[in-house]
Q: What sequence folds into this?
């Protein structure tokens, strides 16, 4: 039996920890500040989370976190920061839910002011994230937009820089995914939308942000196991993740000359 809840928690909170580490430029294990903290009691991972599959549930795209049962754990109560991003300014695409929400929570609790981009139809989810960022004592900025056009991407980056007072961290996380059992079911419209949302936005957001990123800044792209082991019902989505992985490697080589780190977190 697959441990669905443990897997989902690892994806959300684990990705947030990985992205926070990438943003701070250090591996999690290198943070010596934890050495003086009292040890927490060990917990048995076999019984910590439910092992029962979640019930089948469906929503119309784009779907909302608030309607999921049970609600995913993005680290709302479990993630505790240690100041690794104090004073930083971050822009996160797809920051209303899933990995994007987990990253927004982690970044805010590590001390960063956070701007989140999201599809306009997901405003209610975004407002929940705003509250969590503000509860961490950080500035929260909402930038709703359909990011399939160059104009929208450049506008979001421009507004983020203006309202944050600069930019140190760009997390390209937003993605569109539709499962299709047969390639014949994938329309040109879906294929085009998947690539424009997933790949084009990484290129466009990065290109708009780079002139404003100081040495020591980070660009972090969300990839996936699908980038190297594609799911048979996600072939268009998997292809975009492979493209983002390759794009990240090329950008990392090029932007290292500017002192800007580029990482991909799966």
A:
């Amino acid at each position: 039996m697959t441990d669905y809840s443990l897997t989902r928690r690892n994806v959300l909170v684990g990705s947030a920890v990985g992205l926070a580490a990438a943003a701070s430029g250090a591996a999690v294990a290198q943070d010596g500040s934890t050495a003086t903290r009292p040890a927490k009691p060990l917990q048995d991972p076999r019984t910590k989370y439910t092992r029962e599959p979640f019930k089948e549930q469906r929503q119309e795209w784009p779907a909302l976190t608030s309607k999921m049962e049970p609600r995913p754990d993005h680290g709302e109560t479990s993630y505790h920061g240690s100041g690794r991003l104090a004073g930083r300014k971050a822009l996160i695409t797809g920051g209303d839910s899933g990995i994007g929400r987990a990253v927004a929570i982690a970044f805010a609790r590590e001390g960063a002011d956070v701007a989140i981009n999201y599809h306009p139809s997901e405003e209610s989810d975004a407002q929940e994230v705003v509250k969590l960022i503000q509860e961490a004592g950080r500035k929260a900025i909402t930038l709703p937009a359909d990011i399939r056009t160059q104009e929208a991407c450049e506008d979001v980056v421009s507004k983020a820089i203006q309202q944050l007072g600069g930019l140190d961290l760009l997390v390209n996380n937003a993605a569109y995914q539709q499962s299709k059992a047969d390639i014949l079911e994938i329309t040109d419209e879906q294929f085009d939308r998947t690539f424009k949302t997933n790949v084009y936005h990484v290129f466009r957001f990065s290109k708009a942000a780079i002139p404003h990123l100081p040495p020591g800044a980070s660009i972090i792209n969300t990839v996936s196991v699908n980038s190297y082991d594609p799911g048979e019902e996600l072939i268009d989505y998997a292809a975009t993740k492979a493209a983002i992985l390759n794009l990240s490697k090329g950008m990392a080589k090029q932007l290292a000359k500017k002192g800007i780190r580029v990482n991909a977190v799966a």
